Amino acid sequence: MPSSKYVFVTGGVASSLGKGIISASLAKLLQARGFSVTIQKLDPYINIDPGTLNPYEHGECFVTDDGAETDLDLGHYERYLNITTSQANNVTTGRIYQSVIDKERRGDYLGETVQVIPHITDEIKRRIKLLGNTGAYDFVITEIGGTVGDIESLPYIEAVRQMRWEIGTDCLVIHLTLVPYLAAAGELKTKPTQHSVKTLLEQGVQPDIIVCRTEKHLNEGMRNKIALFCNVDPTAVIESIDARSIYEVPMLMREEKLDVEVLEKMRVKSPHAPDLAKWEKFLHRLNNPKGQVTIGLIGKYVELKDAYKSINEAFVHAGAVNECKVLVKSVHSESINPETVNEALAGLDGILVAPGFGSRGIEGKIEAIRFARVNKIPFLGICLGMQCAVIEFGRNVLKLEHANSTEMDPETPHPVIDIMEAQKKISNKGGTMRLGAYPCTIQPDTRAREVYETSEIRERHRHRYEFNNHYLDQYRNAGMVTSGINRQDDLVEIIELPGHPWFVGIQFHPEYKSTVANPHPLFVHFVKAASLFNQRKTE
Ligand code: GLN
Question: To test ligand 1's pocket by mutation, which of 360, 404, 418, 464 has the most ligand atoms within 8 angstroms of CB?
Fold first, then answer.
């Protein structure tokens, strides 16, 4: 195909309808037909990136190889497509305005009045076309965050209108809406969909395809009614019924022929039908587990569904490999102390201590790690979880009284975790951590080597603090193995305890790299260890 085709996905009626999953599912179907596809998310908020947003606001912050702190939907894109995304795949209003204002200050506009149209919309279009212009993709799918009718999404819809005008059938708009079921009336209602399409029309955009999120099947009459009122073909009304797992959605979209409709409307010939054999195999394993394990996820945002999104998804992938259902039991770290720990963590087959920032809940995390270490329960500590494992070992094995991270206690007599040299002078918060992929060398004859089966890896980071090498000999002499090292900066990246069935802490975030096609080996081995632990318990 000579140039990229652009597919836009907008949303109406309500937020959280799953635009990200629909975009990723369409991308998966096109990829399975042999096309190269990437997905981009445009977020209408003014933050430069979600890195400075707290998880209560926006769920998990996903990190790419190139160190971009992005929307969690990029995680879905990577998990579905097994591709890596980058800074170019997530753009916010803050970033758009920053570029335009920087240009204005440089004098690039030569005295013009700088306005939303054309300057902001030009910058939005430039960012959309950046991916297409690489020449690497047949399709660029752009998901527009928010809901049509929001004041802040207006410039994005206007950019879509202009692109539509400029490139015609090389551009297509999919509108995702909600068709609610009113139990009292016993009916599905299409009126909200009609209204939301009207809002889009007022802004000059006619959707080509309407995807209807619904909890009950749409009958032919309803499809025809939506088609008639919204000026689309009846075949372009696609049902998106609630699925038992997000990974079923590509199959549902295949049944509804979403990909066929897109290709016909864009006049593209497909090399072959979607080949989803591997995906189907994954679903079969996921839906037919032979066993079950319960993993405790110890964190301070456990009441938030999306705060540990990538970790939960990595467990889904790893569970399928092990043909084992992974029940993730969230435990609030603030609820754990020496008195409650036995009860709070009873019955778990594995304990994962989550990443995090700040001192809230930290003592509970340390107590949970002591419990896992002493009772020989499989343990995985991610980022702050690894740092807590170092603190726990320092306090309870090395007897370093009040050992801590200087993030939690700047006055600690034993700063076993300390701020990185390079971080000391930084005062800006956004985008200033150690971010993105860094290499790590794995020592032979270690658990990490058994897991990775290679000596050189690259994993993604997002932190300011690290293991304090001043204490390295003490830890090593007492039996902690530092099995992964960043040789360039001499940083400890992986720790483990050999006398324990499975005790691993990592300074990086393996969850960001787990995909359906490539489940992350650390999660796969951790679930396997939990499964063995579970079997021994019942023997
Ligand atoms: N707060 C810790 C640090 O900045 C850990 C960060 C994390 O868990 N992502 O180093």
Answer: 464
3-state secondary structure of 380: strand
Residue where the block lists tokens 């195999």: 281
pTM for the structure as a whole? 0.95
CB of 353 shorter than 6 A to ligand 1: no
Band (53; pLDDT cuts 50, 70, 90): confident
How far is the centre of ligand 1, averaged over its atoms, from the C-alpha of 357 (Å)?
5
Average pLDDT over residues 111-120: 95
Residue nearest to atom 5 of ligand 1 (CA): 384
Mean pLDDT of 484-494: 96
Q: At what angle do helices 521-538 and 309-321 cross, to 10 degrees?
A: 60
* Residue 137 CB–ligand 1 contact under 6 Å: no
The Å distance, Cα 386 to ligand 1 centre, comes to: 9
d(CA 212, CA 229): 14
pLDDT higher than threshold 60 for residue 2: no
Residue that is written with structure tokens 């699925």 in the block: 243
Among 200, 489, 199, 462, which Cα is nearest to 354's? 462
Within 8 A by CB and 6+ apart from 461, the residues are 63, 383, 433, 434, 435, 436, 437, 438, 507, 508, 509
How close is the Cα of 456 to the center of ligand 1, in Å?
A: 23
pLDDT band at 141 (very low <50, low <70, confident <90, very high): very high
**425 pLDDT higher than 90:** no
**What is the per-residue pLDDT across 63-76, written as a single tens digit (0 to 9) for each?**
999 999 999 999 99
Instruction: Report the relative pairing of strands 181-182 and 69-70 from DSSP bridges.
Output: unpaired
User: What confidence score (pLDDT) does residue 1 get?
Assistant: 52
Q: Are 532 and 526 in contact (CB under 8 A)?
A: no
3-class SS of residue 498: coil
Distance 463 CA to ligand 1 centre (A): 4
| The amino acid at 333 | S
At 251, list the tokens: 């199959």
Q: What length does the chain have?
A: 539
List all residues 6 or more positions away from 346 whose beta carbon is below 8 Å from its beta carbon: none
Q: Which of the listed residues 462, 492, 508, 511 should we mutate to test ligand 1's pocket, taking the one with most ligand atoms within 8 A of CB?
A: 462
Pairing of strands 324-332, 350-353: unpaired
The answer, yes or no, to whether residue 417 has pLDDT greater than 70, is yes
pLDDT tens for 215-266 read 999 999 999 999 999 999 999 999 999 999 999 999 999 999 999 999 999 9
Residue from 52, 297, 465 whose mutation best tests the ligand 1 pocket (most atoms within 8 A of CB): 465
- Which neighbouring-strand residues pair with 37? 139
437 and 424 Cβ atoms separated by less than 8 Å: no
Please, are residues 381 and 405 in contact by the beta-carbon 8 Å criterion? no
